[in-house]
Amino acid sequence: MPKRLLFPLLLLIASSAQAASEFYCCQDAGGRRVCADTLPEQCRGRPYRILDSAGNVTKEVGPPLTAEEKAAQAAANLRKKQQEEAAREQQRKDQALLETYATMQDIDMSQRKAENDVNLAIAATQAKIDSVTAKRKKLLDEAEFYRKKKLPAELDKNLRAVEHELKVEQELLDFKKHDFETIRAKYDADRRRYRELTGNHRPAPPPAPPSDSRGR
User: Fold this and answer.
1) Which of 143, 172, 173 is nearest to 157 (CA)?
2) Which residue range forms the structural domain that includes residue 190?
C-alpha cells in the first residue's frame, strides 16, 4: 500500500476503535436499560451515561433543561458576569487609589485642597450675591416712586432680570455648600479603602495646634 494512504487509514482505524470503546446507556420511557456504541434514539431527550470499554462511567449527561431551569441558569450566568465586572471595576479603582496616594497624609492634603477650592468658589459666589443684592435694592428704591403707578418697562425688565440672577446665584451657592458633604464622604471612603488595602489601621494624627507668634 502506498505510504501516502497508510497514515489516513491508520487514523480511521484508531478513530473507529476509540468510538467502539465508548457506550451510551440510559433508561427508556419503560424503565429498561438501553445501551449502544452511539446514542440510542430512546436516549434522546433523557439523561444518559457514557461508559468506557471497562464499564466505567466517563461522563453523565442530564436531561434537557426546562424553560424555568433555562431562565434560572441565564439569571445565574448574568449575576456571575455582573459580579466579575464589579470585581474588575473595584480592582481598577483600588489600583488607581494606591497610585494616587503614597500615604494617608496624602489623602488629608488632597481633601484640604479640594475644600479650599470650594471655599474660594463659595466666596466668589457670595460676593456676586452681595453685588446683585445691592443692585436689587437700588432698583426697588427706584420702584418706590411708582408705588401707585405702573412701573416703566425698562425698570420692570431690570427688576425681573435681577431677581432671576439672584435666584441663580443663590442656587449655585447652595450647590457649592453641598460640595463639602460630597468631598467629606469621598475622602472618608478613600481612607477606609486605603486602610483595607495597606493594612494601615492607625488613625491619622491630629493636626498640630497653630503656633503663637507672641511666644506664649
Assistant:
1) 143
2) 104-198
